[in-house]
Design goal:
Radius of gyration: 20 Å
Organism: Cerrena zonata
Protein name: P-loop containing nucleoside triphosphate hydrolase protein
GO molecular function: 4 iron, 4 sulfur cluster binding; ATP binding; ATP-dependent FeS chaperone activity; metal ion binding
Number of domains: 1
Family: Belongs to the Mrp/NBP35 ATP-binding proteins family.
CATH superfamily: P-loop containing nucleotide triphosphate hydrolases
Bound molecules: adenosine-5'-triphosphate
Keywords: ATP-binding, Iron, Iron-sulfur, Metal-binding, Nucleotide-binding
Number of strands: 10
Oligomer: single chain
Order of helices and strands: HEHEHEEHEHEHEEEHEHH
Length: 324
């Protein structure tokens, strides 16, 4: 017997078998090929339509600042000017954290309307601060106070999660508005914490060009970095590098860094043991969570902490180099 399936989209199919094929309830044109590769025969990785490079931002543990890094890295990449290009890169964010989507809040889109669909049934991403993004959170009903659409629990079994991930990967229209130069240079994926179904599904379906793993200095978080690195290696995703978040605290009254979680020695040792590059060490800055809570990515805060912002810019430069 099937367990409960709390599905949320207005036009969701109600037949359980259809739900397994199409959990987001997207209309399909008859005659389109089934989307998920069938089990018999090797699974073919496919490109994400209209996306040149895919970067996963992940963490072994929850709450280490992965979504904050993913969103701000997307903005830092969008500000990056590649030496061989006369335009800024086009960047998008896809929130693959089905069970705890944070992107709607971080992007100031928590109370946004449901995304519209193209005539072919693809989801049109929502845009704020000039950056397109898509999240499971946009498809959930608003909570009783009418304010938030990310408080609703998604209670899905593994197969449903797989199919939802697949639809978020392949059924979002990233072409953008400009017909002449459409599509994204980089799609940043905000991964769920840990090593569950979502990264495995991702690794099976899509060629991912790089992974950034975020950790905090505490030993419990660092030990999970190893698991993250092992998992990405297993699914053939190159590790772009590690980011140490809340590495130190800079007191507003003095410029001295305080290593309030102890030294970052274990992190450095782990990076060297797993052979991963350290992309940057971001300080703990009070304004980061304040800006996030107001739906403004910290990279866009004009008088934001200079060290935090320049570290994020350097991370973006390194990531861009690694992807190209
Ligand atoms: N460098 C920083 N300085 C200050 N606050 C930070 C910093 N990085 C993240 N935070 C805050 O820490 C909290 C957790 O961050 P975030 O939601 O990005 O973590 P996460 O790893 O994505 O969590 P989850 O596992 O729930 O998805 C947020 O309130 C965020 O604003």
């Amino acid at each position: 017997m099937r367990g409960p399936l709390y599905l949320t989209r207005r036009n969701l199919n109600t037949s359980a078998s259809l739900l397994h094929e199409n959990p987001l309830g997207l209309p399909r044109k008859p005659g389109l090929p089934p989307q998920i590769p069938r089990r018999n025969g090797p699974i073919q990785k496919r490109p994400i339509p209209n996306v040149k490079k895919v970067l996963a931002v992940a963490s072994g543990k929850g709450g280490v600042g992965k979504s904050t890094v993913a969103v701000n890295l997307a903005f830092a990449l969008a500000m990056h000017r590649a030496p061989d290009s006369d335009r800024r890169p086009r960047i998008g964010i896809l929130d693959l954290d089905i069970f705890g989507p944070s992107v709607p809040k971080l992007m100031g889109l928590e109370t946004a309307e449901e995304p519209r669909l193209t005539k072919n049934g693809a989801i049109v991403p929502l845009t704020n601060h000039g950056l397109p993004c898509m999240s499971m959170g946009f498809l959930l009903p608003k909570s009783a106070d009418g304010q938030s659409n990310t408080d609703t629990a998604v209670v899905w079994r593994g197969l449903m999660v797989q199919k939802a991930v697949q639809q978020l990967l392949f059924d979002v229209d990233w072409t953008g508005d400009q017909a002449a130069e459409s599509g994204l240079d980089v799609l940043v994926l905000d991964m769920p914490p840990g090593t569950g179904d979502v990264p495995l599904t991702l690794g099976q379906l899509v060629k991912v060009d790089g992974a950034v793993i975020v950790s905090t200095p505490q030993d419990v978080a660092i030990s999970d970095v190893r698991k993250g690195v092992t998992m990405f290696k297993k699914i053939d995703v190159p590790i772009t590098g590690l980011v140490l978040n809340t590495s130190h605290f800079i007191c507003p009254n003095c410029t001295t860094p305080h290593y309030i979680f102890g030294s970052n020695k274990s992190f450095h040792e782990t990076a060297s043991n797993v052979g991963a590059k350290i992309l940057g060490e971001l300080p703990l800055v009070g304004g980061v969570s304040e800006a996030s809570d107001h739906g403004v990515p910290y990279m866009l805060v004009n008088d934001g902490n200079k060290e935090w912002k320049s570290t994020m810019k350097n991370i973006a430069n390194d990531v861009w180099e690694a992807l190209h």
